[in-house]
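User: Hey, quick favor. My workstation is busy. Could you predict this chain's structure for me?
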Amino acid sequence: MNSFNVSPGEVVDMKASPIRNPSNPKPLSCKISSGVCMPLSAIFTASAGNELSEEDLKDFNDIAHFIGLQTLVEVHSAEEAAIVPKDADMVGINNRNLSTFATDISHSARLIDSLPADAVKIAESGIHTPDDILQLKGL
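Assistant: No problem, here it is.
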């Protein structure tokens, strides 16, 4: 992998850097934090408490794959499931309603078919009994 010297917190124009992701030729501005390049648009969005856009998720997914990491994307709704990158390695379906904190494992059944076919699917929250596990295993 190519490398270059930067300081933590430094903003780098990826057009001028030797690091390229061949699967995503779009240049990225990024911030170096603990040696990780993060797209600035995603940093600003996430730090403001907002959800990431489809483009931000794709950028994070591409960067993770470029540096040899696998990705886990968590979803809570059909809208979030619709923007999961097609090459995400794993997708967690949170069965907890974030407004009421109630859990419903049938939420996983409602979302699973909208997720990328090759991704490992993980049901999160609300699993209490062996029957719950068997129900989810059958999806």
